[in-house]
Structures are given as C-alpha cells and as structure tokens.
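Structure tokens please, single chain.
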Amino acid sequence: TTTAAAQTQQPPLKINLHTITLDELEQFLISLKQPKYRAKQVMSWIRDKGITDVDQMTNLPKNLIQLLKEYTVAGSLELVEEKISTDGTRKRAYRLFDGQLIESVLMPYEDGRNTACISSQAGCAMGCVFCATGQMGFARQLTPEEIFEQVSIFASELKSQNDDRLTNVVMMGMGEPLANYRNVMSAIKRMNSDLGIGARKITVSTVGVVPNIRKLYQKHENEEDNVPQVRLAVSLHCATDEERTALLPANRRYGGLDELLTTVKEYIDVTKRRVTFEWALIENQNDTPDVARTLGRVLRRHNIRRDMVHINLIPLNPTGGFGSGRPSGKANVEAFVKVLEDEFSIKATPRMRRGIDIEAGCGQLKAVVKKKEEAAEQKRKESISAASAAVDELQSFMDQGRQQNPSPLVGVYEDDEDDEIEEVTSSLTTNINQDLRHGSIVNFDICETAVSLDDDEDDFLDPTYQTKDELDEAQRLINLVTNSFPTPPAAATATPQKSKKQQQKDQTQRLINIVANSFPPPPAAAAATPQTSKKQQQDQTKTTSITDEDAMREARRKRKKLLKNLKAIEKLREMESDGKILNEDAMREARRKRKKLLKNLKAIEKLREMESDGKILNEEQLTKIAKEEEWRAEVESLEHNLK
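Here you go.
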C-alpha cells in the first residue's frame, strides 16, 4: 500500500518534443483522439522553424495546445551554466535527470559554418592526463536521446533566432564516442534523418578504440547495422608507444600505435575517406622538429597514403590537473608544420583555440560548475556546523548556569548569614501561639536586626547593604520603575543639577512613594487628612500615559534621524564640490566599469607575456593592447571619483 501511494505521488512522465520521432508523435496524438496529420504540423514547428513553445504553434487548435502543455516538455536537459566567448563560441553545462553534468559547445565561423561539439558520456574512462574530462573519471553512458537532444537544441535555436542552420557536428565533447558505440550511432542516424545534417558533416573522434573503428567500415548483412559515412578523427598526440601511453593510458589497452595505425590504413582503403589525426601541441614535449620527423616516418612505415591523412594541430587547453603542459609558441608550431609538409608532404593545419576565455576545452566548464557547487556545499556544511556548535555552547552555558547560579528572585535579597536567618525564624516561631483561632490576639516580638523604614533615611542606605551587585540590581529596578513613570519635560528642565548621591536618594524615595501610594491609607490616617477636591486628587495621582511616552520616544527618534540626515547632507555637498559621484546607480556602474577595465588590463599583461614568448596574437588581441593607455587613464579617473 505504501509503495502504491508513493507511486501515485510521482509526477507523470512527459514526452520530450526534442527527441520524439514523427511515428511516435503520430501514435501519441492518436491516443489523445487527435488527427494524425497534426503530428507533421507539430514536427514542422520544431524542425523547420525551431519552435518548441507550443503557445507559438499558431496553426494548432486550443485543445491540442492545452494537451501538449500537459503531456509534453521542451527538452530534458537542465541548463546549469552558459558562457559566451568574444569569438562567439557558446559553452553550456547541462544537468541530466540523475544529477550528472555534461557539456555542449556551439562554434560559429565566419564562413557560415555552425559546428556543435557534443558529449557522448558523463565523464570518461580513457584517463588522458591533459584532458579535464579524463581527470574526472567515468560516470555513465549517455542515451541516444541525451546525445541527440544536445544537437536538436542548437539546431532549433539557430532556426528560431537567426533563421540559420546547424551545419556540422563533432563528437569531441565529454567522453569516448566509440566506447558508447551503439548509442552514438543511433543518435547520429537521427541527426542525419531528422535534422538533415549530412553524414560527411559529422565527425567521430576516438582515442583509438580499435575494435569499434573496424565497425565503421565493415559491411553488415543487416542494413540497420551499417553506420552512416561519418568522418573519423583519431587523437594521436604522440609518435611513440612510450610517450603516447604516458599521455593516453588507453594506448596500451587497445594494442598500441601499430595496431591503431594498421586499422586506420584499413579504414582508408575500404572507405576511401580521409582521416584526421588530432595533435595537441604541448610546448617542448611533442612540438619539436624531431617529433615531427618521427611522426612522418611512422605514417610512412604503415603505408598510410599521405594525401589521405591530415594533421590537425591544436594548441593545448591548459587544465589544473596537467600543470606541466603549456601551449606551444608560434616558432615551434611553424617548425613542426614545415617538417611535415616539406619532408613528408603531409598536410598539417594549426587551429586557433576557440572559447579559451570561457573554459571551452573538454570538461573545463563542468569542472568550474562542480567547484562552485562543492564550495557552496562546503559553505552550507560549515554554516550548519557553526550553528550547531553555537547551540551546543549556549546549551552548555545554560546548564552550567543552572548548576552554579540558581535563578534569582527579582527584588529579594538573601542575607548571607544563614545563622542569623535561622535565629529570626526560631524567634518568630516560638512567639506565635500554635492554637490560633479566628479572632485570637497574637503576641509577638520585633527582631532586633529588622530594618525600620521609619528611621532616619541614612539607616536605610546603610553601606552594609550596598555591595556592588546589590546596588547594580537596585539601580536596575529603580530605572525600570522610573522609565514607566517619566518626569514631564518641563519639570526635567527646571530641576537644578544634583549630585549623584542625592539623585540616588531621590530615586529611592520616589520608588517608596510610588509603592506607598499603591495602598490606601488606614481609616484614621484618612480621617486626619484634610479634605481635598476631586480635581486636586486627580492632579496628585496623574502620571504620563503610555501614549504620551510613545509619542515622546518617536519624537526623539525622529529628531535624531533628521539631525543625522542633515549632517550627511553637509558631507554630500562637500563631496559634490570635489567632483565625487553621488548617485548610487552611477557609483555602481562606475565600480562595474572599473572592475572590467582592471580585468582587461590584466589580460593585456598576459598577452604581452605571450607575445614575448613568440606567440602570434590575433587582430582582436592586438586591438586590446593598443587601448592599454586609454584604459589606464580611465581607471585613474574612475578611482578618483569613487574616493
């Protein structure tokens, strides 16, 4: 019963408009008693116009729109973070249904291409030491729908926002695509059929999973097992087994370089398609002319046609887990290319790093998101721990206080001499008749140590009853009563200044009078008192009401606030005369601008270091350097006005 109740509380599963096929959508709409042709209308909005918001599907009836809102959802990937680079690259981190994080990148090019870089796994088991994803480890395989949805989202957005289209897909995101072969190929078939992306525009990258590379060119009796004619890219990076195994541990697992290059040759011979070798240039490690010659000889030894391979030289994206590696300088890159082209006639192209300012390298944005989440979780745990410690400390303090200092009776002071108290108690007890009846006359004696309030005032204020703790408590009680019956302002201003001792005596006497007036006088005393008018009695007993006291307190508070505001206005006028920024929005904008300028200046310093190391700077970077003096002057001006 409990299980059944829990299941009824689960939200109903919704159909994903990004991943549903046309056939599935037709069957779904038929189950809702809707015409079958409506499926093509919905799919046209999604695929042709990039619209996934059903409210914008204007040719659908209202009842169908309501049903689609109830039973469908525009994607299952939760966007956690997005960064947009100055070069237009868009990097996203998505959270999957089980909390895993993956990344997708959209790279627009000036020639009109729009390339999506897609993840195939949550994490990666290949362990490449220079790759941020490889440093995270493997979590799980992505489903065909999760792979396809990454592509579908970019395709829809390009259609709806710019009336543009997604032209290329590279399976070079998180994970090893050929280690998730079946799901990746299923998603690629849908990219080709549902999104209209040509198979030759889709590239599958692999670290060298040899058995599944063979599947890309082998013919199968079952036509469904044959894969589209996708392009193949191999992450090579090194020309010897020893060096490659150190950087890519999977090299040994799949038979080393000889097995890999033999399989690549077979792929080229069967498919007649060119293969790309990815080569991440690491300064002084794999970017020297000698390494280039070793690579050329290895390819020649395996009889790989030089016109059927292309070396894609990619500057290293630095990661925290690979601190020893730095991107190669311009001189090393040019020397590497020259050796391959001049000595071996092998085409090599240096690629410009894209999205370097937004951690666009594989796994880098996920690492940033995870770091933020871990920091937030650590902060939450520390807050809970601190709160728990504070509660424990307070509880300990209260428990200790109860043991050492029992709760005092306010206004009652015990005599420290217990023997004297017992003596008084005994004296009173022995002088009271135990056979008391109503109307009996009781004989009693007055204890010699009793304090008489009728004696001289100095006896009541005897120093023996005035220890520091007693005086502090008495003063607190006097202040408490005094604040309940404040002196009218006029009387307060007319009263001459008195000594502190005299003020204490007056307050004590006033307290006694207030207590005494709370009890009616004896009949005899009342008879001896001259008759006073009702108005005089009201004047004598009248005190300031609570309403009056609240009004006075509010008036004092308001006056204090006004004086504070006037003083602040004087200071603001002085600042205004000095040219300072006073408007809060303007100050906020000035601080934001200063922060941005300082960041730019810091980036310029880094660019100068890169330039001194022989790196080639692009036009945008050179433009930034040219603005250095202008930005420094602007920072100085902002800092002066913000002081």
